[in-house]
Amino acid sequence: MLVDLVQNTLDGLSAGAAYALLALGFTLIFGVLRRANLSFGPAIMFGCYAATWTHVNFGAGLLLLAVITICGAVLAGAYVERLCFAPHRGGSAIAAMVASFALWMQFEELATLVMPRHLYAFPLLYEGDALALGPFTLRVDTLVLLGAALAACALMGWILYRTRFGLAVRALIEQPAAAALAGINVPWVFAGVFALASAIGGVAGYLVVASHGQITPMLGMWATLKGLLAMMLGGLGSLPGAVIGGLALGLIEAHSQWYLGPQMRDLIAYLLLFILLAARVPWMTTRSAS
Amino acid sequence: MSFLSVRDVVTAYGKIEALKGVSLEVAEGAITCLLGPNGAGKTTLMMTIAGILKPKRGAIQFAGAEIAGRAPHAIVARGVALVPENRLVFPAMTVLENMHAGAYQRGDKKTVAADIERMFARFPRLKERAAQQAGTLSGGEQQMLAVARALMSRPKLLLMDEPSLGLAPLVVEEIFRIVTELHRDGTTIFLVEQNAHMALKVAQHFYLMEQGKVTFSGDPGSLAEDEVIQRAYLGSAQR
């Protein structure tokens, strides 16, 4: 019993760490622009497909693939920002969201045109056997995923709370007019936020694809849904909340899959979100009101 | 000498013109005050000078350069800082972080640190609360923080939009004491106020604004105070 509990908690945490990264990216964009960027996940998929394409055609090492994934995601993120969000700054939120949905379709079409098979193999993070620690088995790639995701969270914390750019981002999230009056170059910070959010999204995408060893065009939708869900669980616009929401989502999924069966895995998370929204828990309502 | 010159500025929200051709001058080294009833367009004028709102027409010159329609950060770089209406501090950031945000464009950490010490000397209560979240401060303390944040950019011209709004009389006195101190130290101040009595005591020159237009300009004493107060609160009777 206890062994299962601990094992599931570990699995949940490592999935949750990737969700936390996705939620952080989502929260940055949502917090700064007050816009939902539906193309966040598909931009990550674009980066992962760019890496897969390189791997299939030229064969490349894991490190190079990670760099290509992150650069590809940042490039796609910049494209989304220029096309969907820069023209609608201070304008219609719906127009920006619909435009980002159109780019989602564009990314998926491009991926399936260039690489028509439904599934491609991606080099695994670690090919050896799982570690046996007493009664527990620990997959090494799970540990790498957990470690890398936590390191990326820590790096994000450092950027947001210890650098000048981070100060500007937080100021813009809290009080946009006052941030501009303080002399912050708002369009420049918007672009920087998109680059940063896409980069951590790229890290999450790479870690997930490399630990599963495969990629499909569904990755874009998967990343958008998980990121949105984790962001909402942690409270809209809260950066620490995004990390907590991501980890919580991973744990909820792992435990409900084990105790209630695989088909309940996603359902329980959505049910919980529904209950939290219906109950109007304080951390979910205060942020969105401001 | 005219330091800030606003000429024929029209600013509109959609089709509704909140400023219908405003012209005024702010002299270097002086306290200039703008009075007028609610809805006269005072805040709109401040937001237009600071670049948050773009004017439809007209010219705004500061220290010889045209700033109308420029981005807010470019206007801050020229030396204009606005203490906005309702203070707009960053509530979840500490007092110290708020002040660092005000110094965003300044690269030299040493002079920034020295300026923060100077602000703490001027506003001792901010020093006591340096590590506290700005949202937990009282209204008066938040106003002081908003002033300190604006001063951190080392402005040549300080715009203040209703600094006494919603504050207790004793705190209002303190705010005006700070305004006169800043003036004595050489800062040019352009002040929007509802509190005409206090404003006329500190200003060297004042403007009255009603319904999007400047309707009177003069020195304190050039118009009986009760007439100024009546027009500042209620607008002109004949219209």
What is the overall silhouette of chain A?
globular
Largest interface: A-B, 18 and 26 residues
Elements of chain B, N to C (H/E): EEEHEEHEHHHHEHEHEEH
By DSSP, the count of extended strands of chain B is 10
Oligomer designation = heterodimer
Shape of chain B: globular
Poorly predicted sequence stretches spanning 5 or more consecutive residues of chain B: none
| Mean pLDDT score of chain B | 92
Structural class of chain B: alpha/beta
The profile of the biggest β sheet of chain A is: 2 strands, antiparallel
* Strand segment count of chain A: 4
Strand content bin of chain B? 25-35%
Alpha-beta content class of chain A: mainly alpha
Number of helices of chain B: 9
Please bin the fraction of helical residues of chain A: over 70%
**What is the ordering of alpha helices and beta strands of chain A?**
HHHHEEEHHHHEHHHH
Q: Quick one: biggest sheet of chain B? A: 6 strands, mixed
- State the separation between the terminal residues of chain B, measured CA to CA: 34 Å
List keywords for this structure.
heterodimer, A: 290 residues, mainly alpha, 4 strands, B: 239 residues
Helices and strands in order, then pairings?
The complex is a heterodimer of chains A (290) and B (239).
Chain A: H1 2-33, H2 40-58, H3 62-85, H4 93-114, E1 120-121, E2 131-133, E3 136-138, H5 140-162, H6 164-174, H7 176-181, H8 186-212, E4 214-215, H9 219-234, H10 239-260, H11 264-279, H12 282-289
Helix pairs in contact in A: 1-5, 1-6, 1-8, 1-9, 1-10, 2-3, 2-4, 2-8, 2-9, 3-4, 3-8, 5-6, 5-8, 6-8, 9-10, 10-11
Chain B: E1 2-13, E2 16-27, E3 31-35, H1 42-50, E4 57-62, E5 65-66, H2 72-78, E6 80-83, H3 95-102, H4 109-122, H5 124-128, H6 139-151, E7 157-161, H7 169-184, E8 188-193, H8 196-202, E9 205-210, E10 213-218, H9 225-234
Parallel strand pairs in B: 3-8, 3-9, 6-7, 7-8
Antiparallel strand pairs in B: 1-2, 1-4, 4-5, 9-10
